[in-house]
């Protein structure tokens, strides 16, 4: 059975920070336990306990993604990833039945998981972004970051295609 972004939501533990960007670009609602704004943030020594992670998974009705076997065993729904390399982690998720293709158009901010909306042609944008009348752009409703299908998009497409 193939599982898709429209049906699954994830919570990734502190060991999987690189993976979260890929999942968001594939359209998954993916929360990283150390996202900016979480009560743990990115302060050294301020990591959540296993009990706190499990409580958040249960309260948010998400699938836990972790490399911690003991934590995965305690969760009601979890995927245990055994590798450190993000490509290998993506491969493991694919083998577990999760669809890993770029969401087109993109729906989730790769930085904060917020909802993306198309940018209007006359909307004011930072100078580093392409002209929205020439290149389709999206803005995150939560953090305001602007996205377009540039070299990073192609790099992710290539990575996913090589799985």
State the gist of this model.
With 163 residues, the chain is an alpha/beta fold. 29% of the residues lie in helices and 15% in strands.
User: What is the CATH third-level topology name of the domain at 9-95?
Assistant: Rossmann fold
Radius of gyration: 16 Å
Q: What's the average pLDDT?
A: 89
CATH class group of the domain at 9-95: Alpha Beta
Shape: globular
Segments where pLDDT lies below 50 for 5+ residues?
Answer: none
User: Count the helices. How many?
Assistant: 5
Q: Helicity, in percent?
A: 25-40%
What does the model show?
By secondary structure, this protein is an alpha/beta fold. Helix content is 29%, strand content 15%. The chain has 5 helices and 7 strands. A 4-stranded parallel sheet has the order 2-1-3-4, sandwiched between helices. The protein is globular.
Helices, strands, pairings?
Blueprint: E1 9-12, H1 17-25, E2 29-32, H2 50-60, E3 63-66, H3 69-74, E4 78-80, H4 86-95, E5 116-118, E6 137-140, E7 146-148, H5 151-161
Parallel strand pairs: 1-2, 1-3, 3-4
Antiparallel strand pairs: 5-6, 6-7
Key structural traits:
163 residues, alpha/beta, Rossmann fold, 4-stranded parallel beta sheet, 5 helices, 7 strands, 29% helix
């Amino acid at each position: 059975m193939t599982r898709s972004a429209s049906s699954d939501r994830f919570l990734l533990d502190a060991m999987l920070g690189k993976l979260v960007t890929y999942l968001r670009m594939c359209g998954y609602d993916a929360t990283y336990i150390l996202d900016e704004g979480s009560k743990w943030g990115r302060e050294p020594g301020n990591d959540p306990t296993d009990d706190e992670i499990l409580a958040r998974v249960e309260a948010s009705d998400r699938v836990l993604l972790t490399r911690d076997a003991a934590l995965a065993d305690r969760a009601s729904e979890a995927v245990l990833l055994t590798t450190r390399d993000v490509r290998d982690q993506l491969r493991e998720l694919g083998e577990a039945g999760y669809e890993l293709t770029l969401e087109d158009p993109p729906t989730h901010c790769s930085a904060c998981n917020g909802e993306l909306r198309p940018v209007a042609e006359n909307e004011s944008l930072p100078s580093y972004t392409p002209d929205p009348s020439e290149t389709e752009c999206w803005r995150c409703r939560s953090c305001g970051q602007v996205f377009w299908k540039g070299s990073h998009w192609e790099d992710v497409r290539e990575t996913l295609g090589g799985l």
